[in-house]
């Protein structure tokens, strides 16, 4: 899927100021699943936190070193442990001496459609943050907000002083998040989305895509989108009886880049598991039908 703008307008390896306390550095890993690439955020002024350090690539680590510019690093913070988010934590810790804090470690065998989304088996946090726990530097405070769904260990981080939320992959600025079982859970995701809807954040900084300056509107739209998708699945099963997921994807994702269909199938499976747990559908031999 081609971005709707020239990638040259979003240069990798450059610290782009977004607010008095926030700069982002775009990693050189664009793909159909990462959009223009993974965005690492440097938060603070006299001392800093680095959020989602990204892939372990030499050019990206050099760019992060330049963005840190010799300032003390209070913490290297990870929203979750997919390979486009956390692998640079270990070399950055070695370079800066900063602890790795944030989400819990999680490693699963992943035979899903996203090579970039396999779990980072080398992730070793020095401190795991529970929901509501905080870390702070001079003039800034980050608070962990538990948002399971995309992954079971996913955390967002609120920058208290700016009413901003770093949303990782839970809410992205260009697409909905893939929910891929067995770890991805649609019911958890919907509960996490409802939780964000009830917050008072005024801007989101996602790991992929542009900042979101009317976040409640976007979250309402994403909740509505998931409910519409659930309705599509139920109507498909009512019309067709016993059905396979690829047949559902072929109809429901017409016009979507075919490279994304396997990932779409994972989200359809997540919906079906949720519907099964609610007693609305049943399954046998990979076929799904209304209960």
Automatic annotation (TrEMBL):
Q: Which residues form a coiled coil?
A: none
The source's domain of life comes to Bacteria
Q: List residues of the Metallo-beta-lactamase domain.
A: 37-208
**CDD domains attached to this UniProt entry:** metallo-hydrolase-like_MBL-fold (cd16278)
Q: Which SMART domains match?
A: Lactamase_B
Signal peptide positions (record): none
Q: What is this protein called?
A: Metallo-beta-lactamase domain-containing protein
Q: Which organism is it from?
A: Sphingobium xenophagum
Please name the taxonomic classification of the source: Bacteria, Pseudomonadati, Pseudomonadota, Alphaproteobacteria, Sphingomonadales
């Amino acid at each position: 899927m081609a971005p709707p703008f020239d990638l040259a307008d979003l240069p990798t390896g450059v610290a782009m100021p977004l607010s008095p306390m926030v700069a982002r550095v775009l990693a050189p890993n664009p793909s159909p699943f990462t959009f223009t690439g993974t965005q690492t955020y440097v938060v603070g002024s006299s001392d800093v936190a680095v959020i989602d350090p990204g892939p372990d690539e030499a050019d990206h680590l050099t760019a992060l070193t330049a963005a840190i510019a010799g300032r003390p690093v209070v913490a290297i913070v990870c929203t979750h442990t997919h390979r486009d988010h956390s692998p640079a934590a270990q070399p950055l810790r070695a370079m800066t001496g900063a602890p790795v804090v944030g989400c819990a470690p999680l490693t699963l065998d992943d035979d899903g459609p996203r090579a970039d989304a396999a779990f980072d088996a080398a992730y070793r946090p020095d401190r795991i943050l529970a929901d509501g726990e905080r870390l702070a530097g001079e003039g800034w405070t980050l608070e962990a907000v538990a948002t399971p769904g995309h992954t079971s260990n996913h955390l967002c981080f609120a920058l208290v002083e700016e009413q901003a939320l770093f949303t990782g992959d839970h809410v992205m600025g260009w697409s909905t998040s893939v929910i891929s079982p067995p770890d991805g859970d649609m019911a958890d995701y919907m509960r996490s989305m409802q939780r964000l809807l009830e917050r008072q954040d005024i801007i989101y900084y996602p790991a992929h895509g542009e900042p979101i300056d009317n976040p409640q509107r976007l979250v309402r739209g994403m909740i509505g989108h998931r409910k519409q998708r659930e309705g599509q699945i139920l109507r498909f099963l009512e019309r067709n009886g016993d059905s396979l997921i690829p047949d559902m994807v072929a109809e429901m994702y017409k016009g979507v880049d075919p490279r994304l269909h396997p990932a779409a199938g994972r989200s359809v499976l997540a919906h079906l598991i949720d519907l099964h747990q609610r007693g609305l559908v049943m399954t046998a031999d990979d076929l799904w039908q209304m209960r």
